[in-house]
């Protein structure tokens, strides 16, 4: 990731916002931060929105109880909620609590012009082909000059690996200002679909972008992480926090950061014509529908010298025998009448 941003009186470079490092296939950038300054171990009022946190007497607070949505262990006392008139149960924790004392910074809207450098290569060992998503150059100097100026474009610059954050958000159909406020996870899908019957130089990647977190589920949408830090060193997990001493008291600054996480996901498929798989596939398809049997019979009966022998073995000849006439009672009566009463000769009855 590359880019410079002016944030108030501060100049933020890549080291400030390109974090945390989460692996070779993940890129993260900070777009908004919330600070809870000068936290110390002690006792303070629980946040009023926590279940059963509001109270009117000490009897309403159970000593030693730890609420799952709360910020610490209850002491059993009912105290005033900071500078408000109502009361909540007192807890032992890092004070002041984050939900009361957090200070929000404005969104880093200039990050829309930050660029992401995504370098990817794919290898098809069966065809001994290796392809990359960076345009080949005659020398290293020309390559660096090209990469320092180009930005990815589907038609004009398909081999440029530099992507603007604003372009990624637009392609994912997301509002960049909203992503700065809530954070989000976007998948960068690189698809290699190569026809190796033609020159391998025509094997180019295609990119698509889609949001991966649940946008409609407010509890699970967005992307944020917490870090504890001293004034000079940032650490991205409270388990590895570095603290500072002020007047002999251990203190810390808690930072909750919102940002965009890019998950790079690569798919690859390549094919090349080969006669043997083609023949096997064709024969298999023909066998499945019974065409092979018909073709084999036609060849044997047409082109083989001993086709009569094959025909006798293959087919059974059926001979129809002539049927004998069957005499009936009606035919007997007709013959008897013709012998004794021939009306055509005029013999009287």
TrEMBL record:
Gene3D superfamilies the UniProt entry points to: atp-gated p2x4 ion channel, atp-gated p2x4 ion channel domain
Positions in coiled-coil regions: none
Keywords assigned by UniProt, alphabetized: Cell membrane, Disulfide bond, Glycoprotein, Ion channel, Ion transport, Ligand-gated ion channel, Membrane, Transmembrane, Transmembrane helix, Transport
Pfam families reported for this sequence: P2X_receptor
GO cellular component: plasma membrane; postsynapse; receptor complex
InterPro entries xrefs: P2X2_purnocptor, P2X_extracellular_dom_sf, P2X_purnocptor, P2X_receptor, P2X_RECEPTOR_CS
UniProt keyword Cytoplasm present: no
Compartment annotation: Cell membrane
Keyword Cytoplasm attached: no
Molecular-function annotations in GO: ATP binding; extracellularly ATP-gated monoatomic cation channel activity; purinergic nucleotide receptor activity
Single GO BP term: calcium ion transmembrane transport
Membrane topology, as annotated: Multi-pass membrane protein
Primary site of residence: membrane
Reaction it catalyzes: Ca(2+)(in) = Ca(2+)(out)
PANTHER family attached to this UniProt entry: P2X PURINOCEPTOR (PTHR10125), P2X PURINOCEPTOR 2 (PTHR10125:SF4)
UniProt family annotation: Belongs to the P2X receptor family.
Protein name: P2X purinoceptor 2
The species this protein was found in: Takifugu flavidus
């Amino acid at each position: 990731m590359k880019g410079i941003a002016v944030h108030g009186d501060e100049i933020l470079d890549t080291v400030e916002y390109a974090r945390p490092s989460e692996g070779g296939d993940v890129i993260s950038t900070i777009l908004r931060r919330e600070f809870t300054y000068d936290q110390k171990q002690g006792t303070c009022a629980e946040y009023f929105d926590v279940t059963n946190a509001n109270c009117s007497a000490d009897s309403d607070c159970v000593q030693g109880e730890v609420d799952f949505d709360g910020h610490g262990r209850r002491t059993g006392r009912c105290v005033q909620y900071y500078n408000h008139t109502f009361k909540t149960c007192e807890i032992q924790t890092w004070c002041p609590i984050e939900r009361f004392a957090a200070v929000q910074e404005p969104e880093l809207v200039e990050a829309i012009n930050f660029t992401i450098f995504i370098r990817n290569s794919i290898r098809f060992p069966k065809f001994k082909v290796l392809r990359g998503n960076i345009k080949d150059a005659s020398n290293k100097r020309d390559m660096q000059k090209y990469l320092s100026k180009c930005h990815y474009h589907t038609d004009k610059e398909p081999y440029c690996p530099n992507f603007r954050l604003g372009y990624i958000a637009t392609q994912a159909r997301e509002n960049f200002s909203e992503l700065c406020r809530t954070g989000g996870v976007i998948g960068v899908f690189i698809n290699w679909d190569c026809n190796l019957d033609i020159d391998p130089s025509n094997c180019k990647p295609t990119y698509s972008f889609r949001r991966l977190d649940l946008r409609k589920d407010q509890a699970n949408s967005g992307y944020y992480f917490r870090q504890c830090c001293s004034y000079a060193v940032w650490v991205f997990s409270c388990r590895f926090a570095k603290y500072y001493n002020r007047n002999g008291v251990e203190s810390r600054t808690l930072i909750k950061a919102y940002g965009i996480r890019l998950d790079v996901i690569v798919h690859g498929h390549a094919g090349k014509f080969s006669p043997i798989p083609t023949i096997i596939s064709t024969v298999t398809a023909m066998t499945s529908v019974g065409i092979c049997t018909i073709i084999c019979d036609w060849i044997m009966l047409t082109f083989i010298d001993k086709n009569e022998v094959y025909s006798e073995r293959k087919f059974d000849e059926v001979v129809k025998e002539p049927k004998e006439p069957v005499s009936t009672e009606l035919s007997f009566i007709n013959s008897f009448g013709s012998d004794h009463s021939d009306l055509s000769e005029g013999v009287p009855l």
